[in-house]
Amino acid sequence: MNTDRTRPAGRRDRTRPGTVPPRRTPHRPRPPLRPHQWFAERLLAVLSGQRPVHWMLGHTIGEAYDQLAELAPASPPGAGCRRPVVRACHGTQPATGVVEAFASIATGERVRAMAFRLEQGPDLRWRCAAVDLGGERLPAVR
Hints:
With about 140 residues, the protein is of the alpha+beta class.
């Protein structure tokens, strides 16, 4: 049967009235990152040399910026090392407006720990108040 003859004049689509279009699975967006997960990614970018320390200037308070400056590699990014990734990140809330978090960082087969503390200011923005990296410094991504 030729469907072109059964369509009303001016109708260009090929679907027939009364048919149900195929159902698509709805796109489920990823849930937003929690503050400690977001900070873990940003801290890792600085500690691995992918970003400069001053990138975290507005996101740190107290001695955290100085700690980052000490832990960050002195050499600029170059070629040769694998890019480290956050394997897991967990946080606890010991008090209102405070998150103490730890993350496992993997560089190839090597895994090390990163711990940090976040504090929420009166403007409700989270800022890093302390950071520590277990083991030796992360090599600069080259």
